[in-house]
């Protein structure tokens, strides 16, 4: 593992985490651990209002930091956005959000890092270039490789517009064919636009391109 992407195992009150050695290398999809509501400020469950005592113990949700009884905070769910090694205790509301995000980490991120091929047009140019587009391994950059090379920092992306074709009155039968990406150039307020179109001559890659675009749509959310 390169020095810039090196990780270390740390222990927090919430559990073991595998985090980047350098904070600047952290994923843009990451979340900081929340401060826990102090025990003295939480005499009752913040969900069901049950009073805590020797039998009814309090537990903190690892995602929101609020205080709950065991019944309201019984789920242990993976929380990759905080880099936890094992599933951690979360309240019902947070567990639902984390379960949805786990699909993004297990599926969409892998699709993005594997990459797909598009015709890319920069700005107002009338010329496009065939490029392989992928997310970097540290999840911080969108990397475009062809005759040219671009690296777009994810946090600099301002808008992602997915382009589709096909339409029925019921709204079905549409498919993603490309996207328009707008991002800021580091050190400048200038906004640059790129247009990505899946090549019609690459029918074997259409499914891969559509999956990659769907994953980028998830990124925008």
Automatic annotation (TrEMBL):
Keyword Flavoprotein: no
Pfam families attached to this UniProt entry: FYVE (PF01363), ZFYVE21_C (PF16696)
Gene3D superfamilies tied to this protein: Zinc finger FYVE domain-containing protein 21, C-terminal, Zinc/RING finger domain, C3HC4 (zinc finger)
InterPro entries named in the record: FYVE-type_Zinc_Finger (IPR052113), ZFYVE21_C (IPR032031), ZFYVE21_C_sf (IPR038632), Znf_FYVE (IPR000306), Znf_FYVE-rel (IPR017455), Znf_FYVE_PHD (IPR011011), Znf_RING/FYVE/PHD (IPR013083)
Top-rank lineage group of the source organism: Eukaryota
GO molecular function, one term: zinc ion binding
Annotated keywords: Metal-binding, Zinc, Zinc-finger
Record carries keyword Zinc-finger: yes
Classification via SUPFAM superfamilies: FYVE/PHD zinc finger
Listed name of the protein: ZFY21 protein
Species name: Brachypodius melanocephalos
């Amino acid at each position: 593992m390169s020095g810039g992407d090196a990780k270390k195992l740390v222990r927090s009150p919430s559990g073991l985490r595998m985090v980047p050695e350098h904070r600047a290398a952290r994923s843009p999809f990451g979340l900081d651990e929340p401060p826990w509501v102090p025990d003295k400020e939480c005499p009752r469950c913040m969900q069901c209002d049950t009073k805590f005592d020797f039998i009814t113990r309090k537990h903190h949700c690892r995602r929101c930091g609020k205080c709950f009884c065991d019944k309201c905070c019984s789920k242990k769910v993976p929380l990759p956005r905080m880099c936890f090694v094992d599933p951690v205790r979360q309240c019902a509301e947070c567990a639902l959000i984390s379960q949805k995000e786990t699909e993004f980490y297990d599926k969409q991120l892998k699709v993005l890092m594997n990459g797909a091929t598009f015709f890319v047009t920069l700005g107002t140019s009338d010329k496009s270039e065939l490029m392989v587009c992928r997310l970097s391994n540290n999840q911080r950059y969108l990397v475009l490789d062809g005759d040219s090379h671009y690296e777009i920092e994810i946090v600099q992306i301002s808008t992602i517009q997915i382009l589709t074709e096909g339409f029925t009155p019921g709204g079905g039968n549409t498919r993603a064919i490309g996207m328009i990406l707008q991002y800021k150039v580091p050190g400048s307020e200038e906004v640059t636009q790129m247009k990505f179109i899946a090549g019609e001559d690459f029918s074997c890659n259409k499914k891969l391109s559509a999956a990659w675009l769907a994953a980028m749509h998830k990124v925008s959310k």
